UniProtKB/TrEMBL annotation:
This is Geranylgeranylglyceryl phosphate synthase. It catalyses: sn-glycerol 1-phosphate + (2E,6E,10E)-geranylgeranyl diphosphate = sn-3-O-(geranylgeranyl)glycerol 1-phosphate + diphosphate. GO terms for molecular function: imidazoleglycerol-phosphate synthase activity; magnesium ion binding; phosphoglycerol geranylgeranyltransferase activity. Sn-glycerol 1-phosphate binds at residues 155-161, 186-187, 208-209. PANTHER family: GERANYLGERANYLGLYCERYL PHOSPHATE SYNTHASE (PTHR21235:SF22), IMIDAZOLE GLYCEROL PHOSPHATE SYNTHASE SUBUNIT HISF/H IGP SYNTHASE SUBUNIT HISF/H (PTHR21235). Mg(2+) binds at residues 6, 35. Belongs to the GGGP/HepGP synthase family. Group II subfamily. GO terms for cellular component: cytoplasm. Prenyltransferase that catalyzes the transfer of the geranylgeranyl moiety of geranylgeranyl diphosphate (GGPP) to the C3 hydroxyl of sn-glycerol-1-phosphate (G1P). It comes from Xanthomarina gelatinilytica. GO terms for biological process: glycerophospholipid biosynthetic process.
Amino acid sequence: MAVLIDPDKMTIKMASQFIGKINQSLATHIFVGGSTVADFATEQLVSVIKKHTHLPVILFPGDVSQITGQADALLFLSLISGRNPEYLIGKQVASVSKLRQMHLEVIPTGYLLIENGKETAVQKVTGTKPMSKDSVQDIVDTAKAGELLGMKLIYLEAGSGALNPIDSTIINSVKKEISLPLIVGGGIRTKKQLEEAYNSGADLVVIGTAFEDNEALFEELASLSSRHLPKGEN
Ligand code: 1GP
């Protein structure tokens, strides 16, 4: 499980206590990123996070400005569900001069935004439409195209704070077709939803909003059965 920290919502002051909770939980990764983040906020936050944890800190950036060499790795996202060239290749080109000066592990990631019942920040910021959750074959084909293009991860995104998480049928169908690790996130708030995502084929589940709203969820998830976790976890 990855805990997503949005630098726009997490103050430096709150960070050490929150990371303490993450360290005690079943989280294996910390993701850092947001749709709109003030310049330098990510860099400051990541250096504080690194002081308090041994977990890998992975950038999940909404923009080039959120890339910092303080992190361990970068999800080099291409929004392959959309048709906005800026988010397919433009931002990636713009980031190269920065990346050249860093030693970040760069992980090419096919990022698919799926409709969830309400307009999300990703949709607004990128000006792209999410894929219909009923177009399962289309979603599978898009993920497969990402794999054929050489991407190393596929990320199925319902959007931060989504009303409904990604359907298990979608997770299952994509997982069957690709041989890449599959990340699933957006709108997951309960242990049941987390287990359902794993049981459907997710390799890594990302939770952000639910932990921001309710830190007690860390304890609730502590009893998650190891049979629901991917091999090698727990
Ligand atoms: C968003 O997938 C992540 O990009 C996590 O979403 O904030 O809804 O958990 P939530």
